[in-house]
Amino acid sequence: MLNLLENVDAVRKEIGRNISQKRKSEMGQFMTPSTVARFMVSFFSSSNLHTVRLLDAGAGIGSLSGAFLDSIAAGNLASQHVEVVAYEIDDKLRNHLSRTLEEYQGKLNLDVSVLSGDFIEEAVKAADNSSAEQFIRQYACLLHHDSGHCGLWLGRISAG
Q1: What is the percentage of the chain residues whose pLDDT exceeds 70?
Q2: Looking at residue 5, what is its pLDDT?
Q3: What is the pLDDT of residue 63?
Q4: Three-class SS of residue 54?
Q5: SS3 for 108?
Q6: Is 160 domain-assigned?
Q7: pLDDT in tens, 66-109
Q8: pLDDT exceeding 90 applies to what percent of the chain?
Q9: How far apart are CA 7 and CA 80, in angstroms?
Q10: What are phi and psi of 49, to 5 degrees?
Q11: Where residue 136 sits, what CATH number does that domain have?
Q12: Among 157, 156, 154, 159, which Cα is nearest to 42's?
């Protein structure tokens, strides 16, 4: 069974000690613990989608995505292929995020895109262009977390 989340959690703890509370607040960084990430992922129900598209709108170092991918690897969520799009505005965290997802990429049938933009700003631009629904509908699972607030949007949107 794949369980890279423990490694991600160790990195989260180390990074968390080195980032000031002010910086975390300014950047909207929550640094989701692995226990919380696993709990949130437990709300996903299994589906028969061949491809699951996962959007992590504020990915940090990849705790929520990692918990989701661990669950796929454990057979709790059935999928033959996963496409992850992860947004992170903080360069330092984005580097860790890329490494996290690369580890999973070597173990699962997984395509990864790590983006440096702000998901909310991208969604607003899409809304201004009347394409917000198309922008969002391409994902089967949406993970969102910001400073102190975690949300999980579940839905079978695309049979990809």
Answers
A1: 72
A2: 81
A3: 92
A4: strand
A5: coil
A6: no
A7: 999 998 888 887 788 899 999 998 888 899 999 999 999 988 99
A8: 22
A9: 24
A10: -65, 135
A11: 3.40.50
A12: 154
Q: Whole-angstrom distance between the N-terminal and C-terminal Cα of the chain?
A: 26
16 in a domain, yes or no? Answer: yes
pTM of the model: 0.76
How many domains are there within the chain?
Answer: 1
Half-sphere exposure of 15 (CA within 13 A, CB side): 25
Q: What span, in angstroms and rounded, lies between the C-alpha atoms of 40 and 146?
A: 14
What whole-number distance in Å separates Cα of residue 94 and Cα of residue 89?
Answer: 7
Distance CA 102, CA 34 (A): 18
Task: Give the closest residue to 93 by CA, choosing from 8, 21, 33.
Answer: 8
Q: Which domain holds residue 105?
A: 5-154
- When the pLDDT of each residue in the chain is averaged and rounded to a whole number, the result is 77
CA 98 – CA 79 distance, rounded (Å): 22
CA dist., res. 90 & res. 100, Å (int): 15
How far is residue 81's CA from residue 84's CA, in Å, rounded to a whole number? 10
Question: Is residue 65 helix, strand or coil?
Answer: helix
- pLDDT score recorded for residue 57: 87
Is 159 inside any structural domain?
no
Distance from C-alpha of 70 to C-alpha of 88, rounded to nearest angstrom:
20
